[in-house]
Protein backbone atom coordinates (compact mmCIF):
# COMPACT_ATOMS: atom_id res chain seq x y z
CA UNK A 1 0.00 0.00 0.00
CA UNK A 2 1.43 3.36 -1.08
CA UNK A 3 0.58 6.37 1.07
CA UNK A 4 0.11 9.60 -0.89
CA UNK A 5 1.46 12.47 1.20
CA UNK A 6 0.96 16.25 1.08
CA UNK A 7 3.34 18.56 2.97
CA UNK A 8 2.01 21.91 4.27
CA UNK A 9 4.43 24.44 5.77
CA UNK A 10 5.05 28.16 5.32
CA UNK A 11 8.80 27.71 5.71
CA UNK A 12 10.52 26.41 2.57
CA UNK A 13 13.52 25.12 4.53
CA UNK A 14 11.25 23.15 6.85
CA UNK A 15 9.44 21.65 3.85
CA UNK A 16 12.76 20.52 2.33
CA UNK A 17 13.81 18.84 5.58
CA UNK A 18 10.43 17.17 6.06
CA UNK A 19 10.36 15.98 2.45
CA UNK A 20 13.79 14.39 2.84
CA UNK A 21 12.77 12.56 6.03
CA UNK A 22 9.46 11.31 4.60
CA UNK A 23 11.13 10.08 1.40
CA UNK A 24 13.23 7.69 3.48
CA UNK A 25 10.13 5.75 4.50
CA UNK A 26 8.88 2.79 2.46
CA UNK A 27 5.80 2.91 0.21
CA UNK A 28 5.35 6.66 0.42
CA UNK A 29 4.73 9.07 -2.44
CA UNK A 30 4.87 12.83 -1.89
CA UNK A 31 2.21 14.16 -4.27
CA UNK A 32 2.55 17.85 -3.47
CA UNK A 33 3.57 20.72 -1.22
CA UNK A 34 1.58 23.74 -0.09
CA UNK A 35 2.34 26.97 1.72
CA UNK A 36 -1.18 28.10 2.60
CA UNK A 37 -4.11 26.16 4.01
CA UNK A 38 -6.37 27.09 1.09
CA UNK A 39 -3.74 25.84 -1.35
CA UNK A 40 -3.61 22.55 0.54
CA UNK A 41 -7.39 22.20 0.48
CA UNK A 42 -7.50 22.83 -3.28
CA UNK A 43 -4.79 20.23 -3.88
CA UNK A 44 -6.76 17.67 -1.85
CA UNK A 45 -9.74 18.33 -4.10
CA UNK A 46 -7.71 17.93 -7.30
CA UNK A 47 -5.54 14.93 -6.45
CA UNK A 48 -5.73 11.87 -4.23
CA UNK A 49 -4.15 12.62 -0.84
CA UNK A 50 -4.08 10.04 1.95
CA UNK A 51 -2.00 11.85 4.56
CA UNK A 52 -1.24 15.52 5.25
CA UNK A 53 1.77 16.59 7.29
CA UNK A 54 0.99 20.13 8.39
CA UNK A 55 3.23 22.39 10.44
CA UNK A 56 0.79 24.54 12.41
CA UNK A 57 3.43 26.53 14.32
CA UNK A 58 3.05 29.70 12.28
CA UNK A 59 -0.66 29.47 11.36
CA UNK A 60 -3.13 31.80 13.07
CA UNK A 61 -6.10 29.49 12.52
CA UNK A 62 -6.79 27.19 15.47
CA UNK A 63 -6.21 23.44 15.11
CA UNK A 64 -9.91 22.63 15.38
CA UNK A 65 -10.82 25.06 12.59
CA UNK A 66 -8.15 23.47 10.42
CA UNK A 67 -9.54 20.00 11.01
CA UNK A 68 -13.06 21.14 10.10
CA UNK A 69 -11.77 22.57 6.83
CA UNK A 70 -10.26 19.23 5.82
CA UNK A 71 -13.26 17.24 7.07
CA UNK A 72 -15.46 19.18 4.65
CA UNK A 73 -13.66 17.58 1.69
CA UNK A 74 -15.34 14.77 -0.23
CA UNK A 75 -12.48 12.40 0.63
CA UNK A 76 -10.82 13.91 3.72
CA UNK A 77 -7.19 12.85 4.25
CA UNK A 78 -5.65 11.82 7.53
CA UNK A 79 -4.00 14.74 9.31
CA UNK A 80 -0.68 14.95 11.14
CA UNK A 81 0.12 18.21 12.94
CA UNK A 82 3.70 19.30 13.47
CA UNK A 83 4.31 21.82 16.22
CA UNK A 84 6.85 23.25 18.64
CA UNK A 85 4.24 23.33 21.41
CA UNK A 86 3.80 20.14 23.49
CA UNK A 87 0.34 21.23 24.60
CA UNK A 88 -0.78 21.00 21.00
CA UNK A 89 -0.24 17.24 20.99
CA UNK A 90 -2.87 16.50 23.63
CA UNK A 91 -5.33 18.89 22.01
CA UNK A 92 -4.72 17.35 18.59
CA UNK A 93 -5.49 13.82 19.73
CA UNK A 94 -8.72 14.99 21.33
CA UNK A 95 -9.65 16.76 18.09
CA UNK A 96 -9.34 13.64 15.98
CA UNK A 97 -6.09 14.05 14.02
CA UNK A 98 -4.02 10.96 13.36
CA UNK A 99 -0.93 12.24 15.14
CA UNK A 100 0.92 15.30 16.40
CA UNK A 101 4.71 15.44 16.14
CA UNK A 102 6.71 17.76 18.36
CA UNK A 103 9.84 19.29 16.90
CA UNK A 104 12.63 18.39 16.36
CA UNK A 105 11.39 15.84 13.84
CA UNK A 106 13.05 12.41 13.91
CA UNK A 107 13.09 9.77 11.19
CA UNK A 108 11.82 7.04 13.48
CA UNK A 109 8.92 9.20 14.64
CA UNK A 110 7.83 9.93 11.07
CA UNK A 111 7.97 6.25 10.11
CA UNK A 112 5.86 5.33 13.14
CA UNK A 113 3.23 7.87 12.06
CA UNK A 114 3.20 6.57 8.49
CA UNK A 115 2.74 3.01 9.77
CA UNK A 116 -0.26 4.22 11.79
CA UNK A 117 -1.67 5.82 8.67
CA UNK A 118 -1.28 2.58 6.68
CA UNK A 119 -3.05 0.63 9.41
CA UNK A 120 -5.95 3.08 9.54
CA UNK A 121 -6.27 3.19 5.75
CA UNK A 122 -6.38 -0.62 5.55
CA UNK A 123 -8.96 -0.70 8.34
CA UNK A 124 -11.10 1.86 6.50
CA UNK A 125 -10.99 -0.23 3.31
CA UNK A 126 -12.26 -3.25 5.24
CA UNK A 127 -15.06 -1.19 6.80
CA UNK A 128 -16.05 0.15 3.37
CA UNK A 129 -16.34 -3.39 1.99
CA UNK A 130 -18.47 -4.47 4.96
CA UNK A 131 -20.75 -1.44 4.56
CA UNK A 132 -21.18 -2.07 0.81
CA UNK A 133 -22.04 -5.73 1.45
CA UNK A 134 -24.52 -4.81 4.15
CA UNK A 135 -26.11 -2.23 1.86
CA UNK A 136 -26.39 -4.79 -0.94
CA UNK A 137 -28.03 -7.25 1.45
CA UNK A 138 -30.47 -4.56 2.55
CA UNK A 139 -31.35 -3.65 -1.03
CA UNK A 140 -31.96 -7.32 -1.88
CA UNK A 141 -34.15 -7.68 1.19
CA UNK A 142 -36.17 -4.60 0.20
CA UNK A 143 -36.65 -5.93 -3.31
CA UNK A 144 -37.97 -9.23 -2.02
CA UNK A 145 -40.43 -7.40 0.20
CA UNK A 146 -41.60 -5.23 -2.70
CA UNK A 147 -42.01 -8.23 -4.98
CA UNK A 148 -44.10 -10.01 -2.36
CA UNK A 149 -46.40 -6.96 -2.00
CA UNK A 150 -45.55 -6.51 1.66
CA UNK A 151 -45.01 -2.74 1.25
CA UNK A 152 -45.66 0.00 -1.31
CA UNK A 153 -48.19 -2.02 -3.28
CA UNK A 154 -48.70 0.88 -5.69
CA UNK A 155 -44.97 1.14 -6.41
CA UNK A 156 -42.82 -0.81 -8.84
CA UNK A 157 -39.25 -1.17 -7.50
CA UNK A 158 -36.63 -1.33 -10.25
CA UNK A 159 -33.03 -2.11 -9.42
CA UNK A 160 -30.52 -0.45 -11.74
CA UNK A 161 -26.89 0.73 -11.36
CA UNK A 162 -26.64 -0.04 -7.67
CA UNK A 163 -29.86 1.70 -6.62
CA UNK A 164 -33.58 0.97 -6.40
CA UNK A 165 -35.96 3.33 -8.18
CA UNK A 166 -39.59 3.24 -7.04
CA UNK A 167 -41.80 3.86 -10.03
CA UNK A 168 -45.43 4.83 -9.69
CA UNK A 169 -47.42 2.19 -11.51
CA UNK A 170 -49.53 4.94 -13.03
CA UNK A 171 -46.38 6.29 -14.73
CA UNK A 172 -45.53 3.00 -16.44
CA UNK A 173 -46.60 3.13 -20.10
CA UNK A 174 -45.52 -0.32 -21.24
CA UNK A 175 -43.12 -3.16 -20.54
CA UNK A 176 -41.29 -4.98 -23.30
CA UNK A 177 -39.32 -8.20 -23.12
CA UNK A 178 -35.82 -7.71 -24.57
CA UNK A 179 -33.64 -10.80 -24.48
CA UNK A 180 -33.02 -11.59 -20.80
CA UNK A 181 -34.16 -8.17 -19.56
CA UNK A 182 -37.47 -6.33 -19.51
CA UNK A 183 -37.54 -2.70 -20.65
CA UNK A 184 -39.93 -0.50 -18.66
CA UNK A 185 -40.98 2.77 -20.32
CA UNK A 186 -42.49 5.57 -18.24
CA UNK A 187 -44.61 8.58 -19.13
CA UNK A 188 -41.63 10.95 -19.09
CA UNK A 189 -39.92 8.76 -21.74
CA UNK A 190 -37.44 7.40 -19.22
CA UNK A 191 -36.42 3.79 -19.70
CA UNK A 192 -35.36 1.16 -17.17
CA UNK A 193 -33.90 -2.29 -17.78
CA UNK A 194 -35.11 -4.61 -15.05
CA UNK A 195 -34.49 -8.20 -14.03
CA UNK A 196 -38.21 -8.91 -13.85
CA UNK A 197 -39.78 -11.35 -16.28
CA UNK A 198 -43.01 -10.30 -17.98
CA UNK A 199 -44.82 -13.01 -16.03
CA UNK A 200 -43.56 -11.51 -12.77
CA UNK A 201 -44.62 -8.03 -13.85
CA UNK A 202 -48.03 -9.31 -14.89
CA UNK A 203 -48.49 -10.52 -11.31
CA UNK A 204 -46.98 -7.38 -9.82
CA UNK A 205 -48.82 -4.70 -11.81
CA UNK A 206 -52.41 -3.72 -11.14
CA UNK A 207 -54.54 -5.88 -13.42
CA UNK A 208 -57.22 -3.17 -13.53
CA UNK A 209 -54.89 -0.94 -15.55
CA UNK A 210 -52.41 -3.27 -17.24
CA UNK A 211 -53.00 -5.75 -20.03
CA UNK A 212 -50.81 -8.47 -21.53
CA UNK A 213 -51.18 -7.50 -25.17
CA UNK A 214 -48.61 -9.90 -26.55
CA UNK A 215 -46.10 -12.47 -25.43
CA UNK A 216 -43.53 -9.66 -25.41
CA UNK A 217 -45.65 -6.71 -24.20
CA UNK A 218 -47.61 -5.48 -21.21
CA UNK A 219 -49.36 -2.16 -21.77
CA UNK A 220 -51.03 0.39 -19.50
CA UNK A 221 -54.59 0.72 -20.80
CA UNK A 222 -54.70 4.39 -19.82
CA UNK A 223 -52.05 5.23 -22.45
CA UNK A 224 -53.71 3.55 -25.44
CA UNK A 225 -54.76 6.20 -27.95
CA UNK A 226 -55.78 4.11 -30.96
CA UNK A 227 -56.32 0.47 -31.89
CA UNK A 228 -55.34 0.02 -35.53
CA UNK A 229 -56.43 -2.99 -37.56
CA UNK A 230 -53.31 -4.63 -38.93
CA UNK A 231 -55.18 -7.22 -41.00
CA UNK A 232 -56.10 -10.87 -40.50
CA UNK A 233 -57.32 -10.30 -36.95
CA UNK A 234 -54.15 -8.59 -35.71
CA UNK A 235 -53.95 -5.08 -34.31
CA UNK A 236 -51.46 -2.36 -33.40
CA UNK A 237 -51.91 -0.32 -30.22
CA UNK A 238 -50.90 3.29 -30.80
CA UNK A 239 -49.95 5.00 -27.53
CA UNK A 240 -50.39 8.59 -26.39
CA UNK A 241 -46.70 9.44 -26.46
CA UNK A 242 -46.55 8.31 -30.09
CA UNK A 243 -43.10 6.77 -29.70
CA UNK A 244 -44.10 3.14 -29.62
CA UNK A 245 -46.57 0.85 -31.33
CA UNK A 246 -47.55 -2.24 -29.34
CA UNK A 247 -48.43 -5.45 -31.10
CA UNK A 248 -51.79 -6.90 -30.04
CA UNK A 249 -51.82 -10.60 -30.77
CA UNK A 250 -54.86 -12.18 -32.36
CA UNK A 251 -55.50 -14.35 -29.30
CA UNK A 252 -55.51 -11.30 -27.00
CA UNK A 253 -57.56 -8.95 -29.20
CA UNK A 254 -60.94 -10.34 -28.11
CA UNK A 255 -60.01 -10.02 -24.44
CA UNK A 256 -58.95 -6.41 -24.94
CA UNK A 257 -62.21 -5.57 -26.70
CA UNK A 258 -64.08 -7.01 -23.75
CA UNK A 259 -61.96 -5.06 -21.26
CA UNK A 260 -62.58 -1.79 -23.14
CA UNK A 261 -66.25 -2.52 -23.89
CA UNK A 262 -65.74 -2.50 -27.65
CA UNK A 263 -68.50 -4.28 -29.59
Which CATH architecture of the largest domain would you pick?
3-Layer(aba) Sandwich
- Unreliable runs, pLDDT <50, ≥5 residues? none
- Please provide the ordered H/E string of secondary-structure elements: EHEHEHEHEHEEEEEHEEEEEH
- Strand-residue proportion: 25-35%
> What characteristic shape results from the CA principal axes?
rod-shaped
> How many beta-strand segments?
15
Strand order of the largest sheet: 2-1-3-4-5
N- and C-termini, Cα separation: 75 Å
Short description:
The protein has 263 residues and is an alpha/beta fold. It has helices at residues 12-23, 37-46, 63-71, 86-95, 107-147, 198-204, 250-260, and strands at 3-8, 28-34, 51-55, 78-83, 99-102, 155-160, 163-168, 172-178, 181-186, 191-194, 210-214, 217-220, 224-231, 234-239, 245-248.
Features:
263 residues; alpha/beta; Rossmann fold; OB fold (Dihydrolipoamide Acetyltransferase, E2P); 2 domains; 5-stranded antiparallel β-sheet
Structure, described:
The chain is of the alpha/beta class and 263 residues long. The chain has a five-stranded parallel sheet with strand order 2-1-3-4-5, sandwiched between helices. The mean pLDDT is 84. Helices cover 38% and strands 32% of the residues. It contains seven helices and 15 strands. The chain folds into two domains: 3-129, Response regulator (Rossmann fold), CATH 3.40.50; 156-260, Beta Barrel (OB fold (Dihydrolipoamide Acetyltransferase, E2P)), CATH 2.40.50.1020. The chain starts with a strand and ends with a helix.
